[in-house]
Amino acid sequence: MAQIGDWPALVVGLTGGIASGKSLAAQHFADLGVDVIDTDVLAREVVAPGSEGLERIRVAFGEGVMAPDGGLDRAAMRQRVFGDPDERHRLEAITHPLIEGALRSRLQQAHSAYAVVVVPLLLERGWDRFTHRVAVVDCPVAEQRRRLTERDGTPPAEVERILASQLGRDERNAQADDVLINDGSPDALREQVERLDDRYRRIALAS
Q1: Are residues 8 and 99 in the same domain?
Q2: Tally of helices (H runs) and strands (E runs) in the chain
Q3: Which domain covers residue 119, as residue numbers?
Q4: Max CA-CA distance within the chain?
Q5: Is the overall model pTM greater than 0.85, yes or no?
Q6: How far apart are CA 134 and CA 103, in angstroms?
Q7: Based on the domain organization, do 171 and 76 belong to the same domain?
């Protein structure tokens, strides 16, 4: 992808399966002075109370997805769309253009040598079209299950539904330009991020 407008010369899409360690890797990049844009944060911002996105969701899905405080009832919304492709597509038709607009704005404001965009479903939803490279945080599926059940208390049946909705480990890694292995200590992941940071700065300088 060529540089677009005032975007950084290099935009890296950071992704990985659930509980793979994306947030930790993203924090390591941020600690190195890299502008990190998390689309999960943008997704919350575009449906914040009083926003256009929240009002459009209320009109489309009804008061059943609204919380008593006037915000979005995220649990009710997840239950509404999970496993129902039509409902999910209807929600995404509202939120994705708003998230995309927010992402474009944040990229235009980025000042670091390169930027990292964190997208859980980067490859599944085609958000890699906004990036020059894809970096995957990878860990064994058994470790994902352990983190979700033991650490987060997610019921096993829900864990399996979530894993089934994402690309398989091998398929995701095959589409990556760079793979960060997160099956050890946080320091081991940080060292890998530091090596990628050096490479990305050299790529951006040469662009």
Answers
A1: no
A2: 9, 5
A3: 1-34+112-207
A4: 52
A5: yes
A6: 16
A7: no
